[in-house]
């Protein structure tokens, strides 16, 4: 009997040893009822937030790179390096109707984007314009603060603005947000460049439909450093040795042969140099190399610059280009819509005669068209 018991004990010990050698897993986790005292699970392996295949893209808290005073243009490759950081907010300037077209750039926004379109940032009624009748003026400071407060960003976030098809509209938003003193970059080449760089696309939301997440107040709001008033444009037109005015419209707008919407007449500001805004980028909407751009704008010299178009949209793109080249440049938000209003009999501007004398190829519509 004792021999039988001994054999059973030896067999049991061997079985335990064999089981232990065949399983190197950790002891079982405590039950859910003990979760308050259990050790946390090990952290997941690090992921690259710029890699669209990264499962954690958009969830880390790395700081936004670069000071607000840095360059405005950012390449798709540079954006991929920081895309997904919690402190980097992509803002897509995309026509909602274009976004309904399957497989289009507009229907493939940068993943995690907040989307805006013209009514969100541009409208008439701003008291900073010459007249509240000017229909394409930037929205007020309060409007823009309310809008950006829905983005989930803060005053210290990096906002990367991009376009899908309307490149200039994206530039306009970047210019307006920059005016608030925010850290803003503009994606060179827009969604097409992003997709070519294998950037992650997909999830997005309409910014204006969101609730306020963080109340964002403009770190600074120095309009004089960004936007030319009509008084400044008048001074510039009278002092061509100190200033150069660049008209970035198409040939018809510059020559006064094409009637444009929201204008009170046709023509151009006296002495304006014509450099259409599209000449600064190639057929893929990518900005030309710096050497080519310096040749294109070599006539500026050391003068201060004002750029204008019909409503300060296309000129915002040229403003970004010239700003990154180091020029002292202002965008005339009122542009031809406001200037033609001031020159027209319809506008009843107190300095109308002076404005007319500083206008070439002028034809008065005597009312908006």
Structure, briefly:
The protein folds into 2 domains: 73-222, Rhodanese-like domain (Oxidized Rhodanese, domain 1), CATH 3.40.250; 227-364, Rhodanese-like domain (Oxidized Rhodanese, domain 1), CATH 3.40.250. It has 12 helices and 12 strands.
Q: Would you write up a description of this structure?
A:
The protein is an alpha/beta fold. It folds into two domains: 73-222, Oxidized Rhodanese, domain 1 (3-Layer(aba) Sandwich); 227-364, Rhodanese-like domain (Oxidized Rhodanese, domain 1, 3-Layer(aba) Sandwich), CATH 3.40.250.10. Helices cover 29% and strands 14% of the residues. It is built from twelve helices and twelve strands. Strands 1-5-4-2-3-6 form a six-stranded parallel beta sheet. The chain has a four-stranded parallel beta sheet with strand order 9-7-10-11. Helix 5 (167-179) links the parallel strand 4 (158-163) and strand 5. The longest helix has 20 residues, at 2-21. The termini are far apart. The model is unreliable at 1-67 (pLDDT under 50).
């Amino acid at each position: 009997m004792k021999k039988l018991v001994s054999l059973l004990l030896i067999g049991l010990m061997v079985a335990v040893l064999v089981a232990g050698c065949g399983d190197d897993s950790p002891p079982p986790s405590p039950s859910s009822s003990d979760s308050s005292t259990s050790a946390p699970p090990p952290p997941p392996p690090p992921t690259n937030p710029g890699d669209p295949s990264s499962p954690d893209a958009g969830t880390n808290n790395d700081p936004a790179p670069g000071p607000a005073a840095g360059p405005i243009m950012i390449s798709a490759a540079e954006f991929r390096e920081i895309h997904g950081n919690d402190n980097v907010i992509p803002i897509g300037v995309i026509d909602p109707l274009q976004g309904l077209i399957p497989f289009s750039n507009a229907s493939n926004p940068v993943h995690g984007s907040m989307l805006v379109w013209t009514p969100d940032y541009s409208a008439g009624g701003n008291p900073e314009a010459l007249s509240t009748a000017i229909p394409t003026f930037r929205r007020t400071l309060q409007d823009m603060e309310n809008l950006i407060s829905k983005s989930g960003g803060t005053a210290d976030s990096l906002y990367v603005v991009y376009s899908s098809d309307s490149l200039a509209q994206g530039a306009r938003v970047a210019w307006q947000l920059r005016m608030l003193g925010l850290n803003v970059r503009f994606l060179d080449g827009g969604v097409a460049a992003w997709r070519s760089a294998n950037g992650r696309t997909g999830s997005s939301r309409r910014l204006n439909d969101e609730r306020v997440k963080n109340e964002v107040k403009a770190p600074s709001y120095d309009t004089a450093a960004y936007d030319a008033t009509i008084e400044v444009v008048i001074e510039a037109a009278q002092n061509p040795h100190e200033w150069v005015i660049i008209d970035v419209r198409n040939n018809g707008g510059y020559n006064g042969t094409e009637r444009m919407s929201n204008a009170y007449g046709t023509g151009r500001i006296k002495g304006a140099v014509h450099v259409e805004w599209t000449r600064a980028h190639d057929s893929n909407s990518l900005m030309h190399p710096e050497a080519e751009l310096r040749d294109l704008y070599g006539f500026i010299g050391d003068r201060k610059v004002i750029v204008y178009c019909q409503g300060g949209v296309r000129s915002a793109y040229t403003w970004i280009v010239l700003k990154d080249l180091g020029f002292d440049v202002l965008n005339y938000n009122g542009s031809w819509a406001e200037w033609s209003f001031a020159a027209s009999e319809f506008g009843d501007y107190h300095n109308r005669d002076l404005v007319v004398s500083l206008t070439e190829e002028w034809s008065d519509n005597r009312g908006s068209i």
